[in-house]
Amino acid sequence: MRIAATLAMTAALVATSLWGTDDLFPFAPFKMYSHAHDPDGWANSTVLILVNAEGESFPIGDNDTGFRRAELEGQMARFREDPALLALVAEAYEEAHPDEPEIVGAEILIRRYELVDGERTGAETEELVASWTEGEAP
Hints:
Elements: H1 2-19, E1 41-52, E2 57-60, H2 62-65, H3 69-74, H4 76-81, H5 86-96, E3 103-116, E4 119-133
Antiparallel strand pairs: 1-2, 1-3, 3-4
């Protein structure tokens, strides 16, 4: 019985490693970590920017809201479809920073940087993925 269980587990591990998706972890590798980025090409960076009532724009990180960048990237289609969901991120920021000015806007940007030999060339592009302004319902 142990031999059969060991063979079954080994077969599952091999099959999901070759054809599996991240959803099958721990039997499949996290594909986002299983390959190197091309040192000669374009690198993407997703940025969440908030705008406060004083008109100041600033990028926020994972610790500012508890909403991680990986979650943001994983939910990108939802934010594109319904940018008003950014109001929930603004609320999370305000709860974590009660002494800061009110948040009146938010946007998601994808910045792309050209790399040559792994170094930035200075060439950049920016895509606005979603934008929310206060008054739009979440």
